[in-house]
Specification:
There is one protein chain. With 207 residues, this protein is an alpha+beta fold. Helix 2 packs parallel to helix 4, helix 6 packs antiparallel against helix 7 and helix 6 packs parallel to helix 8. It is globular and about 50 Å long. The relative contact order is 0.10. About 7% of the residues have low confidence.
């Protein structure tokens, strides 16, 4: 008699090893990249990290299994984003960032208008961005300027000490291309604004 496949409840309960969860997830996503999940899962050395990843994969599996109709209609860009985020989760050790990434997968199922080029940029950002940088974006991305020197002209500008923790965060966002210099005028020296990509990043990570 053939062995029955594990039920979804068994998978979600955590009674299965990571390799089984990853294999089931790979069948949902249906891509050669996702098929590597079992191999990658076995390579995780830290037990705590392994448990975080296992739990995240189980939750993602549940989300995807509940959205099978949307999975059938995934655009190429959605398909790419889901895969890229799954692999980012496997390399992420911070639980808070994993939560942002899980929200990204949920939201990606409804982002059928995002372009492939934008997805490529978002995926690169999500791979390298820190939790503190994500939180800074969510808190301050409505502002018009972040400034390192001078006096804020209005309540839409935030003065940041370049040598502070926030200064390091802003520097990180600049290196990721999420903040760009203001206009090339004397008044805008030391002033940075959020790039057009920030709105897409904030939308896709928001729960």
């Amino acid at each position: 008699m053939a062995l029955q496949k594990p039920s979804l409840l068994e998978t979600i309960s955590g009674s299965l090893p990571v390799i089984s969860t990853a294999t089931v997830l790979a069948t949902y996503v249906g891509t050669p990249l996702a098929a590597l999940l079992p191999v990658l899962s076995q390579s995780i050395a830290s037990e705590r990290h392994k448990k975080r990843v296992e739990k995240a994969l189980e939750e993602i599996e549940l989300v995807l299994s509940q959205q099978e109709d949307k999975l059938k209609e995934l655009s190429d860009s959605q398909y790419k984003l889901v895969n890229e985020v799954i692999f980012t989760i496997l390399a992420t050790t911070e639980q808070e960032k994993i939560e942002f990434l899980k929200a990204t997968i949920r939201n990606a199922l409804n982002q059928d208008q995002v372009s492939t080029s934008t997805v490529t940029q978002i995926s690169r950002v999500l791979r390298d961005i820190t939790v503190d940088e994500l939180l800074f974006l969510m808190k301050h991305s409505h502002l018009s300027r972040i400034i390192f020197s001078g006096k804020p002209m209005n309540d839409q500008e935030l003065l940041v000490d370049v040598h502070s923790k926030e200064g390091a965060i802003v520097s990180g966002l600049i290196s990721l291309g999420l903040m760009v210099p203001g206009a090339a005028t004397f008044d805008d020296v030391g002033r940075y604004q959020f790039s057009d990509l920030v709105r897409s990043v904030v939308e896709i990570i928001s729960s």
